[in-house]
Specification:
Chain A has 318 residues and is an alpha+beta fold. Chain A has 10 helices and 12 strands. The two termini of chain A are 39 Å apart. The chains are: A alpha+beta (318), B alpha/beta (250).
Chain lengths: 318, 250
């Protein structure tokens, strides 16, 4: 559906971000770094925009890169005990790339979708749809990755375009089933696709230790995608209109601890602050987890989305 | 007939179940959908048994067996062992194996005549395998992978190996095992055959993501379903469908 021009634009805008040194909980580091906020975040990465493809690779391309990075985190988090080891630990530079959805990312996408207990039964179907929905949606991977690891992704699926798929129908049914009565009519209209501007399911997920700037860039990229698709999508006027989302529905995974709701992703919490309305329902139980999994349905408009993006930017970039 | 199923949204059916010609083990699940799929196919022929090993549901990877016997790791509790003894058919011998590499399903691949084992397995374990399962044991790797149980799957009719196995390797293995082999994948490109697939001489179960191409390769190499051998020893596609598929010009 989408052809060359889109791809080229994507490459021009692709941002390669070096990772920051993982946050450490103690302050007695020998490295000089800027404190971003009062809490533990110490960032010394650099953000650079890559115009051409000739950038030098400064890291090992194998998937093993993920493990040393995790181990590095462990060493840092050990606190005072390992202060002698910290001199030997050097930051690992990882270059993340933001890509269009493609078939090679199927397994990574499926794994991410599987981690959300509400979406897990439809993980394969949703992964397929996300790949089909190539005009809007980003996948975080690394360059020339032989395993096509997906470190994170974000996409918006139009409720009407994919209404024939069973998974979308069932998700809609779930949303309506647990919707509080006062919002039911509103939700029905939104999901039926009869609103002025179409509604979409916002799906996103990422690995736990993705740096904050990457998270911000991921959401930013989604906004850019939508704006671009409205102008330039190749499928014709209908397709362009279908990407001009007015309402977003986000199924955010949370847990209930001592009665209070804790969001798995902090960006979901920010979205909920700008939402038209939210409601929760209990997610299907999964074997072995003692925590109560809850799904929070967050409905917000395009204005709410942009406002949340501003908040996110302030939170991360200060 | 190859059947697609899932264990609690996971496609790794070979992890949660073990299938032989005389019995089937199934891990305990939250809902019994998985168990009923197996029951529907197998109930009339062989017992389908709920089991756990060391309290864990991944019975497919910790146990290994064929029609004559079943081997379980040391971590199996006495209660579990007793339950298995009671549920298995009379002719089947069950034995607990003292082996450092306790995930027996990953390190051993066997059918009713031959077994392939991890090169580092103990001498005593090799003897137990030969004794209890009544097979000839070979220490081999598959495509450079020591976990033969994970990366290959074979029955008395045929076998499937890791997709990057070289032709020479496959020929060597095929002559050892005396069955035809094919390099293939399951669950839409996954190379972990032991985890994604369980098979015996007449039935196969695989994950929901398995493509129809993968299923047809499976059915043809394991001689299951429409590809089952008829009396003349050739599959039905060769006999019944030949005339509609092949047009003779002369």
């Amino acid at each position: 559906m989408v052809s060359m021009p889109k791809k080229q634009k994507k490459e021009g805008e692709e941002q390669k971000l070096s990772s920051a040194r993982p946050p450490s909980s103690d302050d007695d580091d020998t490295s000089s770094s800027e404190d971003e906020s009062d809490d533990e975040i110490i960032l010394e990465g650099e953000l650079r925009k890559v115009e051409d493809e000739d950038s030098e690779k400064s890291f090992d391309d194998e998937p093993e890169t993920k493990r040393p990075r995790k181990e590095e985190k462990k060493i840092d988090d050990d606190g005072g005990n390992c202060s002698s080891d910290e001199d030997n630990v050097s930051p690992l530079k990882v270059e993340f790339t933001f890509n269009d959805a493609s078939e090679k990312f199927f397994h990574g996408l499926k794994m991410h979708l599987h981690s959300n207990p509400v979406l897990a039964p439809y993980s394969s179907a949703l992964a397929d749809i996300a790949i089909e929905n190539v005009s809007v949606g980003t996948i975080i991977s690394t360059e020339n990755d032989p395993d096509d690891n997906v470190f994170g992704f974000a996409t918006v699926l139009n409720v009407t375009t994919y209404q024939k798929h069973d998974c979308i129908q069932e998700l809609k049914a779930k949303c309506l089933k647990y919707c509080p009565d006062e919002r039911k009519e509103e939700m029905k209209t939104v999901l039926s696709g009869k609103t002025n501007r179409p509604a979409g399911f916002l799906l996103h997920s990422r690995m736990v230790n993705i740096p904050l700037e990457i998270t911000q860039a991921l959401h930013q990229q989604l906004v850019l995608d939508m704006d671009w698709a409205v102008e330039h999508a190749e499928g014709g006027k209908e397709e362009r209109k279908s990407h001009d989302f007015g309402v977003f529905i986000l199924l955010a995974p949370c847990t209930r601890v001592n009665g209070s709701l804790i969001y798995k992703y902090f960006d979901d919490e920010i979205f909920s602050e700008h939402a038209e309305f939210t409601y929760e329902f209990n997610a299907p139980k999964s074997y072995g987890s003692e925590e109560e999994h809850v799904c929070s349905v967050i409905a917000f408009t395009k204005t709410g989305h942009r406002a949340a993006m501003e908040d996110l930017k302030k939170l991360i970039s200060g | 007939m190859a059947v697609r199923c899932a264990f609690e949204n996971s496609n790794e059916v070979g992890v949660f179940s073990a299938l032989t010609n005389s019995y089937c083990l199934v891990g305990v699940g939250g809902s019994e959908n998985f168990y009923s799929v197996f029951e529907a196919e197998l109930q009339d022929h062989i017992p389908v048994i709920h089991a756990t090993v060391a309290g864990c549901r991944f019975v497919g990877r910790t146990t290994v067996g064929n029609k004559r016997g079943l081997l379980v790791p040391t971590t199996t509790s006495d209660v579990e062992l007793q339950h298995l003894r009671n549920s298995l058919p009379d002719g089947v011998v069950i034995q607990r194996v003292e082996e450092r590499l306790s995930a027996l399903g990953n390190v051993i691949a066997c059918n009713d005549h031959v077994a392939l084992v991890h090169p580092d397995i103990d001498r005593e374990t090799e003897d137990v395998i030969a004794d209890v399962l009544g097979v000839e044991v070979f220490r081999q790797t598959v495509a450079g992978q020591a976990l033969v149980g994970s990366y290959s799957k074979f029955t008395n009719c045929g076998g499937m190996v890791h997709p990057v196995t070289t032709v020479e390797d496959m020929e060597e293995l095929s002559s050892l095992l005396q069955v035809p082999l094919v390099a293939g994948t399951v669950n839409r490109g996954s190379d972990v055959l032991g985890g994604g697939l369980v098979v015996n001489d007449w039935a196969a179960f695989t994950g929901l993501d398995t493509t129809s191409t993968e299923i047809s390769v499976m059915e043809s190499i394991f001689k299951i379903g429409e590809h089952a051998l008829n009396k003349q020893g050739s599959s039905s596609i060769v006999t019944n469908m030949r005339s509609s598929l092949i047009d003779h010009l002369s």
